[in-house]
Amino acid sequence: MSETPQGHHVVIVGAGFGGLEAIRRLKGSGARITVIDRRNHHLFQPLLYQVATATLATSEIAWPIRHLFANRPDVTTILGEVVGVDPDRHVVKLEDGSEISYDTLVLATGARHAYFGHDEWEEVAPGLKSLEDAVKLRRRILLAFEWAERETDPARREALLTFVIIGGGPTGVEMAGTIAELAHVTLKDDYRRIDPRKARIVLIEAGPRLLPAFPEDLSDYAAKALRSLGVEVMLGEAVSSCDLKGVVYDGKHLAAATLVWAAGVAASPAAQWVGAPADRAGRVIVEQDLTVPGHPDIFVIGDTALSKAPDGSPVPGIAPAAKQQGTHVADTIRARLKGDTKPRPFRYKHAGNLATIGKRLAVIDFGWTKLRGALAWWIWGIAHIFFLIGVRNRLSVALNWLWIHTTGQRSALLITQGRSATSSKAKRSRADNAP
Amino acid sequence: MSETPQGHHVVIVGAGFGGLEAIRRLKGSGARITVIDRRNHHLFQPLLYQVATATLATSEIAWPIRHLFANRPDVTTILGEVVGVDPDRHVVKLEDGSEISYDTLVLATGARHAYFGHDEWEEVAPGLKSLEDAVKLRRRILLAFEWAERETDPARREALLTFVIIGGGPTGVEMAGTIAELAHVTLKDDYRRIDPRKARIVLIEAGPRLLPAFPEDLSDYAAKALRSLGVEVMLGEAVSSCDLKGVVYDGKHLAAATLVWAAGVAASPAAQWVGAPADRAGRVIVEQDLTVPGHPDIFVIGDTALSKAPDGSPVPGIAPAAKQQGTHVADTIRARLKGDTKPRPFRYKHAGNLATIGKRLAVIDFGWTKLRGALAWWIWGIAHIFFLIGVRNRLSVALNWLWIHTTGQRSALLITQGRSATSSKAKRSRADNAP
Questions:
Q1: What is the CATH number of the domain that holds A198?
Q2: I want to staple B18 with a disulfide (CB 3.0 to 4.6 A). Which of A361, B192, B301, B352 is the partner?
Q3: Other CB atoms closer than 10 Å to residue B392's CB: what's the count?
Q4: Is residue A71 part of a domain?
């Protein structure tokens, strides 16, 4: 970390949607840019559930960060983990003790799933935020069918064929619908002793309806559509316990081997790094111009920030919002470099909410109009292919979806990673037999 | 494992090229077939090095076994690990203590890399036999560049940019050529502090020439072609030590952070399971009809078996040989089911040897003619796409290759799995600093 040429130095922590957009918009600004991420790839999170459900391959929704900026000599990429910030000395601290100094700092470090004080649930009910999460979930879902095929005890077999998704937001709805499609369509002829069509997919939501960010009639439509796909939708039921045997909700025990957590997120610890005020989810409460109170040279954007839309409502934690914030930060930095230092308030423009339900069904709320069903699904699919990076990945994802929707076959039904399948089984069996 | 309908029961252990071919050829034979594999996928091993070098995605060269036989009600697939065989009781023992009885048993369990009594080298110099191996190697290769970008000590930076491949057979030649292409072409513009074109790729072979199964002039051509790609080829140099700091060969120490083992394989423990005679590499010395001496109901095929070609030379450990053996076993079982129990000696037909060297270069030895260079590469590519399973994967691999060869861009440059990048770095740094 020694060579530091002249020029204003912008350090961007996190290469999600917000961070990438800021880098793009700073092209030609004259600033030197360093982007730091603890992973080597940008992840297209809206399609992550398709990796978890064996639809897409990991390389179709992830891009090496430094490769995206190979033709930008002003951008330096560092694979590293930020562990702190010293705002007085203007340095970012990395995990190996080294420091990187900045003139302007942009924190875009995103969020992780939160377990509301029950961190021990993470091991049994993993969430879905990274490629590793997705591959782990894919592995657990596919292994559950494998173990069921070998299981002779009917009760245990039934537990292995029960999949519980906790949380009825977009991720929960997408996971439930796609697991149902996987079990009831893709895998239906693959087993000899079990019938995957009899697998139970249970979606549990503590609130009174699915997709709370959508209008009520779209929530009702989503619940009806999921039920027609064979998903059991439980509303107004809070989960009080998760373990290797299943879940307890509303006093009832449901035996299930596979749990998926889609119930809540918490921001990264950026607020602690800079000593900024934060809300209960850990998000930095930023000024109107997205800076940290008292630190006009530190911006916080994306899921790490709590900012307000013009109507006073919080800006939602979705990709378009993070991108708009990245654009705003870049524009502010460009203006400052030209000597214009007047505060520039961020104005969020909400384009709409989209969620897919299952094969060829989706809901869209544009505000001025609402869509549901097959047309919404086509718009959803085209929009997502458009926002993927690069011609190659667009081709590859389009080919994959075309294939799945015409043949019903999935190409990524692979169990990889971690301990061997059989040693996991042994471990789980022991756990199942424990008192 | 309770339901056992009537009919001759063939148990096949291992779903590699030999096992799959036997299952295919037994279609309509009237036999019930159970295939047991400890992984859920068949792997197209000849292209595994392309996953390790970020060219192909894992799902492009692997297929779920049970999905391949979804339309074969006579085939039951078990994800499980065989730990023993009782030939007297005609049962196969699984890792969880359960047993599966057979009328005919086919052992096709393949081989793993062997370290000639130095198993401790496996951790620092991984081999390439499974998808996990390939993803681990990809991770190490890409991380070495990342760490080099952050390293300030010139000697350590040089070690991080030195890649040593041990073993000059087809896998070693393919890995060396492709890592050279990755460093010198794909990654050349991605870094700011290091120049990937200066990375050293060193191929060390203990014997006097590369590709010992090929004619000498093709070996010489391969060495020349690799050197033109920037690979340092060391012949007649045996490696005497591997550790986190690098390798020692012929008394010389070479500092290198990334080692790849391509120097030797050993058969699976099938010989011990059945108490059969084995050669030094652990291969079962089978009868002319591929059965185990004294056990006419147990066949051993593929890399697990040592059988002889008509000219007395050992049948090579390549995919076409395993497939021919699978066909022979299936034909023998079909004949026996019709009452024809006379011994049927296996006659191996050698079609040729192929190896790629790097971008658009390959060598082929058909016996009756030899090819080298670009034409050989085209034949190699077309043959491999032809032997992939399914239209979708053929399209996908062809698209990927086309993309790489026209744009130079690779799509699978992902660092995933295992410990986080940064914790690995910390661990390795500590190891590097150890006395």
A1: 3.50.50.100
A2: B301
A3: 19
A4: no
In a domain, A84, yes or no: yes
Q: Could you tell me where the DSSP H helices lie in B151-230?
A: 154-160, 170-181, 216-228
Close Cβ partners of B316 (under 8 Å, ≥ 6 residues apart) = B213, B350, B353
Distance from CA of A55 to the nearest CA of B (A): 10
Please state which of the ranges A114-123, A381-390, B182-191, B226-235 shows the lowest mean pLDDT. A381-390
CA distances from residue B90 to A1, A184, B290 in whole angstroms, order as listed = 65, 37, 18
* pLDDT the model gives residue B192: 93
CATH classification at residue A294: 3.50.50.60
Instruction: Answer yes or no: is pLDDT of A4 > 70.
Output: no
One domain, residues A140 and A241: yes
How long, in residues, is chain A? 435
Asked if pLDDT for residue B431 goes beyond 50, the answer is: no
List all residues of chain B from 375 to 404 with a beta carbon under 8 Å from chain A.
392-393, 395-396, 399, 403
Helical H runs in A4-64?
17-25, 48-52
Domain edge (last residue) among A287, A303, A337: A337
Does one domain contain both A216 and A153?
Answer: yes
Total domains in chain A come to 2
What pLDDT does A117 receive? 87
B266 touches chain A (CB under 8 A): no
User: Taking the model in full, what pTM does it have?
Assistant: 0.88
Structure token digits, residue A345:
């308030």
Which residue, chain included where needed, has tokens 């982007």? A35
Read off the amino acid at residue A320.
P
Residues A167 and A215 in one domain: yes
Separation in Å, CA of A405 to nearest CA in chain B: 13
Asked if A41 reaches chain B (Cβ–Cβ under 8 Å), the answer is: yes
Residue A324 is encoded by which pair of tokens?
């708009």
CB contact under 8 A, B132 and A399: no
Q: Chain B: give the shortest CA distance to residue A208, in Å.
A: 38
**Which domain does A278 fall in, by range?**
9-38+80-113+265-337
The contacts of residue B154 (CB under 8 Å, 6+ apart) are none
Domain assignment present for residue A55? The answer is no
Neighbouring CB atoms inside 10 A of A71's CB total 9
- The two structure tokens encoding residue B364: 């082929």
Domain end residue (candidates: A337, A367, A388): A337
A87 and A230 co-located in one domain? no
Check if the beta carbon of residue B391 is closer than 8 Å to that of residue A52. Answer: no
Predicted-complex ipTM score? 0.84
A290-306 pLDDT, tens per residue? 999 999 999 999 999 99
DSSP code, position B315: P
Q: Are residues A143 and A288 in the same domain?
A: no
| Same domain, yes or no: A232 and A190 | yes
* Pairing label, strands A62-64, A41-43: antiparallel
DSSP A146-212: HHHHH---HHHHHHHTEEEEE--SHHHHHHHHHHHHIIIIITTTS-SSS-GGG-EEEEEESSSSS-T
Residue with structure tokens 């350090």?
A: A11
Question: Based on the domain organization, do A132 and A218 belong to the same domain?
Answer: yes
Position B340 scores a pLDDT of 94
